[in-house]
Amino acid sequence: MKIVILDGYTENPGDLSWAPLEALGEVAVYDRTSYVDSPLIAERIGDAEIAVLNKTPITKETLDKCPNLKLIAVLATGYNVVDCEYAREKGICVANVPTYGTQIVGQYAVGLLLEICSHYGHHAQTVQAGKWESNADWCYWDYPMIELYGKTAGIIGLGRIGQATAKILNALDMNVIAYDRFQSETGGKLAEYVELDQLLACSDVIFLHCPLFPSTEGIINKENIAKMKDGVIIINNSRGQLVVEQDLADALNEGKVYAAGLDVVSTEPIQGDNPLLKAKNCFITPHISWAAQASRQRIMDITAENISEFLKGNPINIVNK
Q1: How confident is the model over 5-15, as pLDDT tens digits?
Q2: What are the structural domains of the chain?
Q3: What is the pLDDT of residues 103-127, one digit of tens each?
Q4: DSSP assignment of 207-223, as one string?
Q5: Residue 302: enclosing H or E segment and its boundaries?
């Protein structure tokens, strides 16, 4: 069985081992192939039966050029880079990794908030630069310090990751509310379910933890921002397309939104003309919420299990049945 890994570097930059996959077949690893449709993708898949990828797209044209392909294993939860419907028509299974980074993504979301509240990195750099040593007072701060105790955090999307975030926010003694079309008993123990408009109006901080659906695309837009409190903080490490970026940039520059902590943007890598790059109080990190070694190891292990069970005739985590 031939297995081709098309863009393996972000999953394994050298601190993991491909051995779990190598135990299942003949493996060829490419660190990077292409993040846009390219003839190189089909060329590298060649006569392989299994293609493993993260963000390399698999289009109808590529699928037509790879007659031996039987399984596409995505090293992520999201699988929108694959034409899943056409793969299904051709009898090709697409498997994803549905749960691997729940805790680390929740941790990262709250980390973005804490950085906004206290500017740890900035103040550490000023100390190294000598500002504390030469300061006239025994302490100083360059930004307002924000206490989260008693403030209201609104979570849009109270699934696994939203619940992980809610647990941390509860430990900070915040009032946690949530909007989700699908309410659960577990979620109800961690947050009070409210309607979206109530969440927008009442929250001091808004977290985006919802999937990207037509109903959620652009949910942070000019109209919804107008419903928010003045000085709200917005955190998004879910999907960049949940935000209308020009609208958020305008709100940051006008002061309606105090700050935004983002680990995702609409086009990745970020483009130089993205309006958020020049917006006030906008903290952007390069889509690394998921990237702790422990979570990447889980991706490796679950992907190996996906392939192994497929070879046994018992496919799991298939998204295009």
Answers
A1: 999 999 999 99
A2: 2-100+295-311 (3.40.50.720), 102-284 (3.40.50.720)
A3: 999 999 999 999 999 999 999 999 9
A4: EE-----TTTTT-BSHH
A5: helix 293-311
Residue 319: what pLDDT?
Answer: 97
Catalytic residue among 123, 160, 287, 298: 287
Which strands sit side by side in the sheet containing 26-29, from one edge to the other? 26-29, 2-5, 50-53, 71-74, 93-95
Count of positions (residues) in the chain: 321
**What pLDDT score was predicted for residue 225?**
98
User: Helix/strand/coil (H, E, C) string of 149-184?
Assistant: CCCEEEEECCCHHHHHHHHHHHHCCCEEEEECCCCC
In 3D space, the residue among 61, 91, 54, 48 whose CA is nearest the CA of residue 76 turns out to be 54
| Per-residue confidence (pLDDT) for residue 228, from 0 to 100 | 98
Cβ atoms of 194 and 201 within 8 Å: the answer is no
pLDDT, position 177: 98
- Determine the Cα–Cα distance for residues 177 and 166; give it in Å rounded to an integer: 9
297 sits in which H/E element:
helix 293-311
SS (H, E, C) 30-42: CCCCCCCCCHHHH
Active-site hit among 119, 239, 296, 298: 239
Please report where in the chains the tokens 């000019």 appear, as a residue: 222
Residue 148: name the closest of 124, 173, 171 by CA.
173
**Which portions of the chain are predicted below pLDDT 70?**
none
Asked if 239 is an active-site residue, the reply is yes
Task: Identify the pLDDT of residue 265.
Answer: 98
Identify each DSSP E strand in the chain by its residue range.
2-5, 26-29, 50-53, 71-74, 93-95, 152-156, 175-179, 192-193, 205-208, 232-236, 257-262, 282-284
Report the alpha-carbon distance of residue 95 to residue 73 in Å, rounded: 5
| Residue 255 Ramachandran class (φ > 0 left, ψ -120 to 50 alpha, else beta) | left
Query: Quick check: is 287 catalytic?
Result: yes
